[in-house]
Amino acid sequence: MAAPQFSRQLSSSSHVLTPDTINHQVKQAEYAVRGEIVLRAMQHQTALKANKNHSLPFDEVIMCNIGNPQILGQKPLTFFRQVAALCEYPALLDHDKLMPEDARARARQLLAATVGGTGAYSASSGIPLILEDVAKFITDRDGHKSDPADIFLTDGASVAVQRMLRLVIRDHNDGILIPIPQYPLYSATIDMYGGAKVGYLLNEEAGWGLEIKELERSLQEAQKKGITTRALVVINPGNPTGSILQRKNMEEVIEFCHKNRLILMADEVYQDNIYYQDQPFISFKKVLREMGDKYSNFELASFHSVSKGFFGECGKRGGYMELVGMHPEVKSEVYKLASVSLCPNVIGQIIVDVMVNPPKQGDASYEQYISERDEIIASLKRRAALITDAFNKMEGVSCVPAAGAMYAFPKITLPQKAVDAARAAKREPDFFYCLALLDNAGVCVVPGSGFGQKEGTYHFRTTFLPPENKIQSVVDRMAVFHAKFMDQYR
Amino acid sequence: MAAPQFSRQLSSSSHVLTPDTINHQVKQAEYAVRGEIVLRAMQHQTALKANKNHSLPFDEVIMCNIGNPQILGQKPLTFFRQVAALCEYPALLDHDKLMPEDARARARQLLAATVGGTGAYSASSGIPLILEDVAKFITDRDGHKSDPADIFLTDGASVAVQRMLRLVIRDHNDGILIPIPQYPLYSATIDMYGGAKVGYLLNEEAGWGLEIKELERSLQEAQKKGITTRALVVINPGNPTGSILQRKNMEEVIEFCHKNRLILMADEVYQDNIYYQDQPFISFKKVLREMGDKYSNFELASFHSVSKGFFGECGKRGGYMELVGMHPEVKSEVYKLASVSLCPNVIGQIIVDVMVNPPKQGDASYEQYISERDEIIASLKRRAALITDAFNKMEGVSCVPAAGAMYAFPKITLPQKAVDAARAAKREPDFFYCLALLDNAGVCVVPGSGFGQKEGTYHFRTTFLPPENKIQSVVDRMAVFHAKFMDQYR
Questions:
Q1: ipTM over the 0.90 cut-off
Q2: Which residues in chain A touch residue B17, judged by CB atoms under 8 angstroms apart?
Q3: Does domain A31-60+374-489 have CATH number 3.40.190.10?
Q4: Which residues does chain B have within 8 Å of residue A299's beta carbon, measured at their own beta carbons?
Q5: Distances (CA, A) of A129 to A125, A412, B38, B158, B345
C-alpha cells in the first residue's frame, strides 16, 4: 500500500524499523477499501481544491469506496444526535423547549446509568444499562432470550471481530473460513494474526449463494494442507454482495458448523439495510434457537454496528457483539482484551443505545424518527436499483441486484487487450480498470481483487450512497467511461 | 483473571473454544488494573446497592484502581463539552445565547473541516485540521517544528501504543525494554503479541530514578538470552511512580537508544499532571531536537491522550502519537493498521482538538477555562501530598512523593506472618494485602505485582483522585485497616 503523503527524504539504511524489519504479518495484510486507489482519489481531491484551473477531466471526486453515508450528505437521525448532545453537555437539560421530552428523558436515564457521564471510562464491556437494552432488542427481534452478560460493546464492529479472531487463531495452522468475496477486515486481520485464510466461493450465478458443498470442499482442501479450521465467517446481508441468506440455507450453515466443530462468526451489521419484503433479514441467533436442543451449546458470535443501517453513524465507532454458547472463561478472556483497551468510547455506546431502543409509538420523537428512517431506506432502495440496472446495461457487465447492505459488486468482462495492458503495467486487471475509472471519471471504487473473486473473473465494489441528486450523474460518468474503455481495448 | 459474572453452567468438554484451545498468548497476558480485585470491588458495589442491610463493613467502595477522574466526581471542562455538544447537534448553533461565541466558532470550524460531521468516518489518521492543530501545539510546546504528517490520532493512547508494538514485535526473540514498575498495558500487549519483556528496574531509593547502568544491565542480560531488544518504553511523568525525568537523564536515555539502535517509545500522557514548578515536564521530542544533528534520524514515538491531565476525558477515547524519524513506509504501515479499524472516533478527535487548542486570552471562555484548570491542578496537588504524607506515617510504609501523574505507589513492608498467610492462600503477598484492604475498608487499589516490582518488595498503586471532601476519610480508612492488618500478622 502506498501512502504518498509520507515523504521519502530519509535513507532507509539508518533506520531501526524498515519495511524489511517490521512484523511481516502486518506488512502482508491488505486493506483495499482504504488502499492505493483511495489515496490517489484523495490526492485528486486535494488537487481540485487547490487549483480551479486543474487538468483533471472532472470537477469532483465521488467516493464510492466505503460505506460512509454521512460523508455523502445523508443526514443523521435527529433523535440520536439530540441524545448525544444532551449527554455531552447536560446543562442543556435545563432548557425546557430546546429538545423533545423523550430525548431529554433518555439522556437523563443514560446519565443516571453512566457514573461520571461521557467523560469516564465505563465498565470494560460497556455500560450495564446499555447492555440490557441491547439484550432486550435482540430478545424482541428474535423472540428468544438474550442475556446482557453475553453482550460486549465495542468501538465499532471491527474491534469485536478482531477480538474474536485473536482468541481463535493460535498459529498458522489455524484456519478461518471466509467468503470469497469478503470484506477485507477479515483477510487483513487473519494475515496480521498469522492464521490461515480458508476461502469459500459464493456462487455468483445463484445470486451469490452460499453453498454447503463449497464449504465442504474448502474445508477438506484446508485439512489436506494440515490446517485446523476453527471458525466460519458469514456476512449477512452480504458485503460486498448485497445478498441475503434464507432461513433454510442458514440452518444448513449451522448444521455444517456443528458437524465440523466450527465457531460461527455472523457479521450482521447490515441487518437494517433490507430493501425487499420477500427477502427479510433473519438473525443466526433466531435460526439457531429454533433448531432445537441439539444445538444448545453451539458457539456463535454475532456482530452489529451503528455505522450502517439507516443511521450510518460511522464516525461514532459504536458496535457490539453477542457471544452465545461460549465457555465462561473464554468470555473472561474477551473481557480482559476489552480491559486492556479500557472501554469502548462512551458516546459510541450511547448511540448503540438509541439504535437498539429508538423512540416508540406515542413518544414525542416517534413520527420524526419513522419518517427519517423510511425516507432513507426508500432512497437507498431506489439508488440500489438504479445502479444495478445501469450496470446491467453496460457492455460486458452483469450485476446481481442488491437486496440488502450498501454495495453493488458488478462483474466486468474485460477485453483481452485490457488484461494484457494491465499485466504490462504490473497491475491486476480489475485494479487497472478502477484506476482508469478514477482518473477519467472521478469515481472511486474498490477492485474486486481487494475482496477476493473467482479466478479469471473481475469485479469492483461500489456503494450506492451518492445522494439522489447526484447518483444519476455518477452512473452516467461510469457508463461513458466504460464505453470508452471497452472501445480503447476492444 | 476471574470474571464471576459469567455463569459456569456449561460443561467445557463440548466447546470448540476453551481456556486450553484459545490463543495462549492472550491467556498469558495480565491486566491487573481491571483484574480480579476490581471485579470483586464491583461485586461489593452491587451488593451495597441491592441491600441496605448488607454485612459489609463499609457503605461505599472507593475505586482507586484506575485514573478515571470523572467517575469520582471531577467535572468536565465546560468549553470541551460545549464544543462537543455543538458538533453533535449543529442545530444548537442557531441559538445565539446558548453557548459562548468561541465555542460556537470552534464548532463551526471543526464541522467545516469534517466532511460529514461526527457521523462520518474521517481519514484513517484523523481529521486534517486536527492533525494540524496537534502539530502546532507540539511546535509551540517544544519550540521545534512538528509536522502534521507525523501525527496519528487514535482511540486513546493505548491503541497507539499497541500499533507501534505490533510493528516492532516480530517474534519471541524481539524484546521491548519496559520499566519496573510499568503500566500493564505494555506487559499485556507484549505478551499478547508474543514478544519478550525486557524489564529495567527504576531505583525507588532515588525517587524512582531511571539509571542508564540498569538499562545496560538489562539489555545485556536479554542479549545473552538471544533476545534482540528493539525499543525502549519510558513513561514520563511516571505511571505508577508519579516521578518526572530531568533533562540530563533524558539526554542519556536518547544517547542509550541511539547507541543500541532502539526505538524510543515515550508515554507522555501525564504531561499536564505536573504539580511542582521545579520539576517541569519536558518532552523527549524537545530534548532530542536540542541534542543536535547527530540524532536527526532518531526514531521516536510519543503518545498523548485526552484521558489524563486536568481534563480527564477518559470516556472519549481520544489520543494521538507523533512519529518522528520513522521510515516513510513504516508510517504507511501504521496508516494501514489505522485503516483496518477505519478511523478513531470523531468526538474523541474533537476533544483532542480542544485539548491542544484551548481558549486563548481574550476568548469568551478563557477565564472560565483557566479557573477550571487551575482549580483541578491545585486540588490534585493537595491530594497527592495528603495521601503521600499519610502513607509515610503508616508503620512499615514508605512512599516517594508524586511530582506528577495521578498515582502514589507506596512500598509496604509486610510482616513475615502476612507473607506466610498469603502463600498459604496461594496469593502474592501484595495481592493478599490489597484484597484485605478492599474487603475490610472498601478501598480498591491495585497490587504492585500488577505493575512489576523488585523481588522481595511489595507495593500497591492508588490514584489520588477521590474528591477533596472524601479523600481524608479514604486515607483514614486505609490507615485504620493498615494498623489492624499489621497487628494481626505481627
A1: yes
A2: 167-168, 230, 263, 299, 326-327, 330
A3: no
A4: 15-17
A5: 11, 49, 20, 26, 22
